[in-house]
Amino acid sequence: MKITIKNLALAIATMFALTSCNNEELFVDEAVSTELTVTDEVKEEIENPIDPNDPCDFQLYSAKANSTIIIDCIMDLENKIVNLPANINLVYEGGDIINGTLNFSKASIIDGALLNSSLKIEGESPQLKDPTFNFLKERWDIVEGVVDDQVSYTNKILLNELMVMVKKLGASTIKIDALDAYFQTRPGFNGTELWQPELTAIQVPSDIHLVMTENTQLRVQPNDFRNTVLLTLFKADNAIVEGGIFYGDRDTHDYDTYNKTNHEWGHLVLVKASNNVTVKGMTLIDAGGDGVTINSLGHSFSSGYIPAENVLVTNNKIIRARRNGISITGGENIIIDGNEFIDSGVDTALSKGTAPGWALDVEPVWGNGVKYEIVNHVIIRNNIERGSENGGFINARGSYITYEGNDMESSIVIGQTDNSIVRNNTFTRNPDSKSLHVAIYAGDYDDKGYNHSNEVYGNTIIGFAKGIWLMESNMDIHDNTIIDCGSAIQILHSKDSKIRDNAIINETGGEGISNFTIKYMDNIDIYNNVIKVGGSPFRFTNVNYSESDPAVHHNIIRNNEVTSYKNANSSFKTILGFDFKDNICHNSGIRVQNVREANILDNDFNDGIIRISGNYNADIAIVENTISGGNCFNDDNTLDYVASNIVKENNTCE
Predict the structure, then answer these.
(1) Domain total for the chain?
(2) What is the pLDDT of residue 629?
(3) 3 state SS for 487-541
(4) CA 576, CA 518: separation in Å to the nearest integer?
(5) Cα–Cα distance, 377 to 76 (Å, whole number)
(6) What pLDDT is attached to residue 434?
(7) Which of 610, 518, 507, 511 is closest to 555 using CA atoms?
(8) How far apart are CA 201 and CA 204, in angstroms?
(9) 3-state helix/strand/coil string of 189-212
(10) Cβ 8 vs Cβ 28: under 8 Å
(11) CB 216 within 8 A of CB 179
C-alpha cells in the first residue's frame, strides 16, 4: 500500500517524518509530495495515535524562529517564563500548555484553544489563529452554581480579564455556550468604585461581538446596593452583545441594609457613552431595576460629554423588570426594534415593583430649565408589550421620537416632546390590566410648552375607556381607527391642532369626539371623520366660556359623517366660539345649551333635531340646514331664558 503525503496532518503519520513530540524535530517544514510504502511499523503507529493527555517530550525554550509547533500533548511550564523567538506558530491538536508564561516575540500566532487561566501571555502579543474565540468554562476557573460573594466576584474578574486578553490577541468574536454562574458586581465590594456601577460590571470591550446561547445563564449575585449593573457596554464602540439569559436579583436583593431607598437601579444591561453598538437576542429576567438602560457620560453642556449613539436594541425578551423594561435617559440615533416586554414594573410574591413601572421610558434628566441629558432621534418599532404595571411606552422630554408598528396592551404617552410620531400601532386593551386606561396620551397635562409639531396617525385602538387624549398644540391626529372605546378622542387643552380622517366605531355605546376638564381649546379643526357610536358623536362642555374674545378661541367641526345608534344628539354646552358645518348626521341632531358665538351651517340632520336649551344663548346663526324625520327645532329654555341675536334662516324641514 502506498500513501502520498501532501499536508501537515498526514506528515505526522510516519515515525521518520515530522513528529511534534520528538525533541529532535520541533517544527514542521513545508510538506512535500512523497510516495512511501506503508510498513507494519508505520501501520501500527497510525492505528495507535498520540494521546493528547501524555506529557510532551520536548520543551518550548528550544523552539527556533519561524517554526510551527503542534501541541498534541501536555506542556507543563512548571510556573516558569518561556521566551519564544519571532514568528512562532502554536497549533492546537488536542494538547495543552499550562502553568506558566509565554513571552512572545513579534509576528507570532497562537491557537485560541490553547488559552486557559493558568497560562499567561506576555511580550509582543501574538495573533489568534482564528478571530473567533470559543470560551470553555472548564479552562477558565469560573465556578458555576450558588457561590459566596468572593467567588462570584472572582468569576467577574476572570471573565473581564479574558475578554481584554483575547481582544488584545486579535479576537473580534467571543462565543460562550454552556455556563450558569453568579457574578458579584456590587460597587464598593473589595474596595471597588462606589458610585460608577459600569466600572464594577462585566465589561464588554470595543470591537467585540459577544455571542451567547440559551445555555448561557449569567446571574446577579444577590447584594444590598441600590445601583448595580450586570453587564455594560461602557465607552465600547462597535460592539455587539448577543444571546444569553440574564437574571437579576429583584427577589433575592437586600432592600433594607444599605441606604434604605427603593434600590431601583439594579440594571441587567447598561449601554453608556458607546457608539455603534447592538444588544440583541437576549432574555432578561427579574432585573432589580431596568432590563436595559441607555445613557450618556456627563452633562450635555460639559466638555467631557459622551452620548450613547447609534444604538440598536433588537429581538430581546424582557420579563418582570422591577422598574422599567428599557430606560433611555441620554443618547441619539437609537433603535428599539422587535423586543418583547412582559410584566414590567409588576409586583412578585417576593418583591414590589417600583416607579415608573413602564415597559419603555424615554426620560432625560431636566431640572430648573437645565437640560442635563438629551435624547433625540429614537425609533421604537415592532415591539410587543404585555402586562405593564403603569403603562407601555412613555416619552418625557425626548425629541424626534417615533413609535411605529408596536403591538400594545397599554398606553403610549408622548409628553413634553416635539417632532414625535405615533403611527401604525395596535392597541388592544386587556380587561384585567391595571395600567392607564387611555391608549394614546398626546401631550403634557401640565402644559409647560414643550409639546409641539407631533403627529398621531394610522393607529388601531380597541376596547379602551379613552382612545386618544389630546393635550398639546400643533398636533395632527388622523387616519386612526378607534373601536369600542368609551370616548374615542378627548381634548384636554390644545390650539392650532387637527383631528381628521379618523374612523370611530362603537355600536353598543360610547361617544365620538369630546372634551375632558378642558383648560382651553383654540383653533381646533375637526373634519372628515366617520363616527358611528351609540352615544353622542360630539360632546363638548365648558369650553372657553369665560373668554372675552371669541375670535381667538374659535373651533371648527366640519365635513364629518356621524351616526348615533341610540338617537343621541351631538351636545354643545357652555361654550364660546365654534362652527358646526357641512356635516352629515344620521339618527342624530344637535343640542346647544348656554352657547355664544356659534354657527350651525349647511348640515344634514337625518332623523335628528336642532335643540336650543339653557338660560342664556347669544349670537348663534342656524342657517341652511336640512332636517328630516321629526321636528326641525325644539326650544326648551328655562323660564328666565335670555336669548340674544339667534338667527334661523333658510333651513329645510322634511
Answers:
(1) 1
(2) 82
(3) EEEEECCEECCEEECCEEEECCCCEEEEECCCCCEECCEEECCEEEECCCCEEEE
(4) 13
(5) 56
(6) 85
(7) 518
(8) 9
(9) HHHCCCCCHHHCCEECCCCCEEEE
(10) yes
(11) yes
Q: Residue 399 falls within a domain, yes or no?
A: no
Residue-wise pLDDT for 572-600, tens only, equals 999 998 999 999 999 999 999 999 999 99
CB 509 within 8 A of CB 487: no
Contact 514, 538 (CB under 8 A): yes
Residue 369: its pLDDT value, please? 84
Per DSSP, which regions of 146-239 are E strands?
173-176, 179-183, 202-203, 209-212, 216-220, 227-234
Residue 40: its pLDDT value, please? 52
pLDDT at res. 8: 38
Nearest to 390 by CA among 368, 421, 417, 357: 357
Q: pLDDT value at position 17?
A: 36
Grid coordinates representing 253 are: 436583593
Burial of 55 (C-beta count, 10 Å sphere; 0-12/13-18/19+): exposed
Give the Cα separation of 253 and 263 in Å (integer). Answer: 9
Q: What is the DSSP code string of 436-453?
A: -SEEEEEE-TT--S--BS
pLDDT of residue 4: 29
Cα separations in angstroms, 326 against 10, 359, 457, 535, 620: 55, 6, 24, 40, 53
Whether residue 126 has a cis bond before it, omega within 30° of 0: no
Q: Cell match 362652527: residue?
A: 579
The boundaries of the domain holding residue 99 are 2-128
The secondary structure of residue 251, as a DSSP letter, is T
Determine, yes or no, domain membership for 226. no
Query: 602 with 625: CB under 8 angstroms?
Result: yes
The length of the chain in residues reads: 654
Residues of the chain with pLDDT under 50: 1-38, 42-45
- Distance spanning both ends of the chain, measured CA to CA: 111
pLDDT value at residue 553: 73
Which residues of 343-417 form beta strands (DSSP E)?
Answer: 358-362, 366-367, 370-371, 375-381, 384-386, 391-396, 399-404, 407-408, 412-415
Asked if 128 contacts 172 with a C-beta cutoff of 8 angstroms, the reply is: no
- 621 assigned to some structural domain: no
pLDDT digits (tens, 9 = 90+) for 76-112: 999 999 999 999 999 999 999 999 999 999 999 999 9
CB under 8 Å to 573, separation ≥6 — which residues? 540, 541, 542, 591, 592, 593, 594, 595, 614
- Phi/psi for 465 (5° steps) reads -60, -40
| Look-up of cell digits 354657527 | 599
Predicted pLDDT of residue 425: 99
Q: Judge whether 565 lies within some domain.
A: no
Residue of 488, 494, 609 whose CA lies nearest to 539: 488
Apex 292 CA angle, 290 and 296, nearest 5: 105
3-state secondary structure of 43: helix
pLDDT (0 to 100) of residue 39: 52
